[in-house]
Design goal:
This protein has 5 helices and 14 strands. With about 300 residues, it is of the alpha+beta class. The protein starts with about 25 loop residues before the first strand and ends in a 9-residue tail after the last strand.
C-alpha cells in the first residue's frame, strides 16, 4: 500500500491546504468511472490533454498537486473516485502583460488599481502571472490580497482589492447591498438619427450559449442599468452607464439590448472572431465611490485611462 505524507492545512474548513491559495488553485473531483484509471496522473492527463503526463508528474514532484485534505498527490498515487484534487495553475511561457496596471491608492486595508484592457482580474485560462491579482500579490509579497469585485478581462478601469483577510466581509457586503456607486463609459455606433438619450434597462440575465456568454431570460429582473448618451461625434456615441446591480457581462448585454453594442466587443450581440488589429472593448470602469464600512470615510477613485475616441 502506498504511503502518503499528510501536510497540515488550515483546519478551519474555509480554504485549501497551505501552498494552495484560492485564486491560483483549480480543483477537480475524481468521478466514479466504469473503467478506472490506474493513477491520478493518468486521469488528469486524459482530462486535460493539453497538459502532458510529464508536466503533471513534474507538478506532483514539486508538491503542486494535492487532495483537499492536504495529502500531496505523487506520480504513482492511485486513482481514488470521489476525492477532490487541487492543483496550482500554470501557463508555460506566459506572455508579459502588454501594459502595466496603475496603483491609484493604497491604505492599510485596501489597494485600488487602474486596470488596462486585456488584463484579467484573477487567473483564468492562459492568464496567470499577468493577472492583476497575482501581480499585486507578488508586488506586496502577500497572498491575503483578494478582489472586492470583478471586471471582465476586456474592460479597463478601477478595481478595488482588499489587503486584510479579517476585513473582507465588510467590504464584500457593501458591494452585495448596492452601497457602491460605479460609473462606466462606453463607445458605440450612434449616428444623428438617434434621438433618445436616456434608458433604464431592467431585466433578468442568465447563461447563454456558448457558456461564456450571457443573455436576457424570463423571470424576475436581476440586472438594472441606467444608461445615458452624453456626447456624439460623427457616428460614434459616448455613453455613461451606472449599473445598479453587478451581473456578469451586464453592461455589455444591456448596451446590446438597447441597440448599441459596444465597439470592440467580440461576444455581443453575436460572437465574432477577434483580429489582432481590432479595437479592444471600448468599455471603461471610470469611477467607484463608497463610504468605508469600517472607518466611515467617504472614498472616491477615478481611472486615468481613456477610450479610443475621447481623452
Amino acid at each position: 500500500m502506498e504511503r502518503h505524507t499528510h501536510i497540515p492545512h488550515r483546519g478551519d474548513g474555509t480554504g485549501p491546504p497551505d501552498g494552495f491559495d484560492r485564486p491560483l488553485t483549480s480543483r477537480v473531483r475524481l468521478p466514479y468511472l466504469a473503467v478506472r484509471p490506474v493513477t491520478v496522473v493518468d486521469y488528469l492527463t486524459a482530462r486535460f490533454p493539453h497538459v502532458s503526463a510529464a508536466a503533471w508528474t513534474s507538478r506532483c514532484l514539486g508538491n503542486r498537486v494535492a487532495f483537499d485534505d492536504g495529502t500531496r498527490v505523487r506520480p504513482d498515487t492511485p486513482y481514488l473516485p470521489g476525492r477532490t484534487v487541487l492543483y496550482r495553475r500554470e501557463v508555460p511561457n506566459e506572455d508579459d502583460a502588454p501594459e502595466p496596471e496603475i496603483i491609484l491608492w493604497e491604505g492599510d486595508d485596501l489597494i485600488v488599481a487602474d486596470k488596462p484592457h486585456g488584463m484579467p482580474v484573477t487567473p483564468a485560462g492562459l492568464y496567470v502571472q499577468r493577472s492583476l491579482l497575482v501581480r499585486l500579490q507578488e508586488g506586496a509579497n502577500s497572498t491575503d490580497i483578494v478582489p472586492a469585485h470583478r471586471l471582465d478581462r476586456e474592460t479597463a478601469g478601477v478595481v478595488l482589492f482588499i489587503k486584510n483577510a479579517t476585513k473582507r466581509a465588510a467590504y464584500h457586503q457593501i458591494f452585495a447591498t448596492g452601497c457602491v456607486e460605479r460609473e462606466y463609459l462606453a463607445l458605440a455606433r450612434a449616428d444623428a438619427s438617434v434621438t433618445q438619450t436616456r434608458w433604464r434597462v431592467e431585466n433578468r440575465i442568465g447563461p447563454s450559449t456558448p457558456w461564456f456568454r450571457q443573455q436576457v431570460v424570463e423571470g424576475r429582473p436581476n440586472a438594472v442599468s441606467e444608461i445615458e448618451l452624453i456626447r456624439r461625434t460623427e457616428d460614434i456615441g459616448l455613453f455613461r452607464i451606472r449599473p445598479q446591480t453587478g451581473r456578469k457581462h451586464q453592461i455589455r448585454v444591456h448596451m446590446s439590448v438597447i441597440g448599441f453594442p459596444i465597439l470592440g466587443d467580440p461576444l455581443y450581440p453575436e460572437p465574432t472572431e477577434r483580429t489582432s488589429r481590432q479595437l479592444p472593448l471600448q468599455l471603461l470602469a471610470r469611477s467607484l465611490s463608497f463610504t468605508d464600512p469600517l472607518s466611515g470615510v467617504g472614498r472616491a477613485f477615478r481611472s486615468g485611462r481613456a477610450l479610443a475616441a475621447w481623452g
